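Hey team,

Sharing the MFS transporter run so nobody has to redo it. Sequence (384 residues) first:
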Amino acid sequence: MKIWYLIIALFLISINLRPAITSVAPLLDTIQQDLGMSGTTAGLLTTLPVLCMGIFAPLATKISERVGLERGIFYSLVLITIATALRGFFGTVPLLIVTAFLAGVGIGVAGPLVSGFIKQYFPTKPGVVGVYTVSMAIGAGSATGISAPIYESIGNWEPALAIWAVLGLAAMIVWIRFPGKKQSGLPEKTPLPWTSGRAWLILLFFGLMSSIFYSVTAWGAPIIQSMGYNSVVAGSMLTAFVLIQIPSSFIIPSLVARFGYVFPTLLGCTVIELSGVILLISDGHPLIAMLLIGLGAGGLFPLALMLPIIETNSYQKASAWAAMSQGGGYVISALGPLGVGAVYDVTGSYINALYGMTAIICMMGVLQVMLWVTAESTRLKKQR
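Structure output:
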């Protein structure tokens, strides 16, 4: 296939990997009031997809071996699209939870397969990964910023959630042209590094980092609304949180790749993110707070993805470290949105949840220092 077709296919699958999650965020308060959902139950709408991203990611390789890489992506896309479309027909709590689960399964399986797609079709052009990152940010930002205005114009939240299935239909038209064929010559399997202390540190860091991102994605708009802003304004500020990550996710890792200093940069991004949460606690302007949190998150995520590559000396080991950190990390991160909802149910306020986020970000900083110190210790030993 021509390269322009492959780029379009990559763009369309990537843009579908976040709207099922982020479209709910600006309407969460409305959905809660309409259906009488508790904060804990509402948190499941974000928790389930993220949890599935960790649980079902290891199955991606088996699915690829069985039906082929491209066909596996297509089937995942079908599942995401169906789950999203169903939200427009039945506005009930059980259906929302079921569709969150189904979409999460599709996203969880598709993510690793898309990485395989990039490696297979663009082996000498790693910069194509930027298309993946930007496309996900566009999908996430669009769903976050447009869902609330759609609700305001239509008057129902169900179509505002289901309309994102259109993106899936467009992608399916492109992806159905790919043949389903099994891969051959797979590399020798490398066991996950369960006995490595540094691998566990990276897993914990990835989990805490992602828990903050998904907690803000799920509850950022309700938190801003609790400060006196309407759903449209809150959704716009959440969109700013997502969109600011596009330049930071390009610029920060590029600077690290050129000049080094990965761990000082990680700490710097953590401080920036922490300052945004503290600004929300102190009743500062939420737009500035969301921009700071997004700027920090935009640097933390790609650098977290770089750590397994830095720590290993082969592609097989890097994949194993990444599978462990992301699989376990996403499971941990799924507890973030659920925890915010539970804290709100108990206290009736988001302030204690924000204090909890502050503590988690500080724990991230401690893990980064531990990784930095042990890395320097290893480097000095090698020099002796």
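The chain has 18 helices and no strands.

Ping me if you want the raw files.
A.
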